[in-house]
Amino acid sequence: MASPYGGKVTAPPYSPALESPGGTRRLVPFFTQAAEFEVLWPLIRSHLSEVADRGKYSHGRKVAEFEAALADWTGARYVVGVNSGTDALVLLLRACGLRPGDEVIVPAFSFVASASAVVLARGKPVFADIDPVSYGMDPVSAAAAVTPRTRMIMPVHLFCQLADIRGVTEVARENGLTVVEDSAEAVGMRWNGVHAGLLGAGGVLSVFPAKTLGAVGDAGAVITDDPAIAATAAALRHHGRYGHTIDNFPGISNLSVISGVNSKMDDIQAAVLTAKLTRLEAGIARRNELARHYTDRLYGMPGVLRTPIIAQRDVQVNPVWYVYLIEVTQRDDLAEYLTSRGIGCEIYYPTPLHLQPCFAGLGYVRGDFPNAEAACERTIALPLYPDLTVGDINRVCDEIYRFYSGPRP
């Protein structure tokens, strides 16, 4: 049987379940960074010591250092560190000129923050369906959602690949819209060499602990090549104060030119992230290796409707495996079974955005976006992170096989 990666599936559909000493089954958490953290601890400790020596724990020199390092890694002209990916999206929308009541087209299949950020930025989310291959925004559905009040369009890059940015950009060009990317999951993903978040007016990165580049708490960043957007986002994160404020305590006295918020990045998070940037390429390569093993084990397995498919584009793109997502039958039962067997899993996402209670007032009903609704009924995310071993993946796949087919005699 051929694999979506090419070649033959060589791993057997079932292998003997791995056990820890004493015959107990080894737990496979959905996420952990314990081993990576131990390897990096000397470098992390060095950065943390610098923070402690200076005594500046928020919006300080280490944040500026991380912003510069991340800008170099992504190729962005500007990086603005904030306290979460969600805040980054809210501030980006405001910095791009979203006005009260303006509409923003958002895919119906995403984390709720993609749409709630629009509301928090005083706009109105308008939903579009997704492409069932990439799970990204369907440009045809997005074009149909445009109204005279539409001002922005927000592609969301999910799981392991970019949305159809060319198609989305064409919709934006034809309708005079600003492209704002929810690239929170897209660290390392590039379209024809350009990093996610830099394909429109700007984008965001989330560095929540489980992300491809993860902190030890909440943090995020706005990335852009536009100096005006960067300056406005930087002011908004610090109560609307323009001018030099980072690592500059007197800047707290700067006038607040616009109504901003307190969304400064902590230097503790910046210290950890600066250290972890040094191993990011290796971590991405490890995730790719593990994803291939998953696909070789799961492709064609009973109950597995599909393993991830990388959408074909006419430019060079690169998958970065933040999440390994499959579609299955009896999804909720499988999730319960895996949990009972000590294997972590997550359902991304159980409810499409247009059916979330907080958006009930927008008037959408079931059936409006069939691709998004189908994904919400069938998708499940399996453990994937650099600390994971091939033995762990075999254990996960063995249990999935056992759930659908029962153990071989």
Explain this structure:
The structure is a single chain. The model is unreliable at 1-23 (pLDDT under 50). The protein has helices spanning 34-54, 61-74, 85-95, 113-120, 139-144, 165-175, 227-236, 267-276, 280-298, 331-340, 370-378, 390-405, and strands at 78-82, 103-107, 124-128, 150-153, 178-181, 190-191, 194-195, 202-206, 220-224, 304-306, 324-328, 379-382. It is globular, with a radius of gyration of 22 Å. 35% of the residues lie in helices and 12% in strands. The chain is of the alpha/beta class. Helix 6 (165-175) links the parallel strand 4 (150-153) and strand 5. It has twelve helices and twelve strands. The two termini are 23 Å apart. A seven-stranded mixed sheet has the order 1-9-8-5-4-2-3, with helices on both faces. Strands 10-11-12 form a three-stranded antiparallel sheet. Helix 1 packs across helix 8 (267-276), helix 3 (85-95) crosses helix 4 and helix 9 (280-298) runs parallel beside helix 12 (390-405). The longest helix has 21 residues, at 34-54.
Give the tags.
409 residues, alpha/beta, 7-stranded mixed β-sheet, 3-stranded antiparallel β-sheet, 12 helices, 35% helix, globular
Strand-helix topology:
Layout: H1 34-54, H2 61-74, E1 78-82, H3 85-95, E2 103-107, H4 113-120, E3 124-128, H5 139-144, E4 150-153, H6 165-175, E5 178-181, E6 190-191, E7 194-195, E8 202-206, E9 220-224, H7 227-236, H8 267-276, H9 280-298, E10 304-306, E11 324-328, H10 331-340, H11 370-378, E12 379-382, H12 390-405
Parallel strand pairs: 2-3, 2-4, 4-5, 5-8
Antiparallel strand pairs: 1-9, 6-7, 8-9, 10-11, 11-12
Helix pairs in contact: 1-8, 2-8, 3-4, 3-7, 9-12
